[in-house]
Amino acid sequence: MTPETIFPTLISALLPAxxxxxxxxxxxxxxxxxxxxxxxSKIQIxxxxxxMTMQTFVxxxxxxxxxxxxxxxxxxxxxxxxxxxxxxxxxxxxxxxxLQYMLGNTGGYLxxxxxxATICGWMAERGWDRNPLSxxxxxxxxxxLIYIPxxxxxxxxxxxxxxxxxxxxxxxxxxxxxxxxxxxxxxPLFWKFVGRTRT
Length: 199
Description:
This protein is an all-alpha fold. The protein has one domain: Arp2/3 complex 21 kDa subunit ARPC3 (Orthogonal Bundle), CATH 1.10.1760. The relative contact order is 0.14. The chain contains nine helices and two strands. The mean pLDDT is 92.
């Protein structure tokens, strides 16, 4: 195996293209993926120190299952839906809709979603989703790519003299670690399932 080895994605193993036109399949999967991401943003789980949504888990796990091209397209579609005013983001419509919401405090995290989707999908195509350790490292990379633009945006908006890390990072770390461990267990299990169905 070399760094340039391309592995099949989980979605291609679970749902082979078959007779469905590749462009139609791509569009359908991106649409379904964007809906699943929107739903995940609305579900809050009681957690400490703040309630936890499964949105970042879904985004990163879905991206690894989809591969970088489909994952990037799915996140861009999700953002386009939000920009058009659909209530797909966490806290919408109560916290605003469309570009008004996207230019607010969470705007940087939304940009980070696309970066994370692309890189996690790329890493999965290099086999990073096949065992717990490499899956966890890929998810950690994805989380970093969400937080970096998120915190920079928050600082630019509110001022870097404010407690940006206390507002936009520290309360979410425990939840993100939990989701990282969950993904590290779930994705390799799916690959074991795929292996059994092929034997």
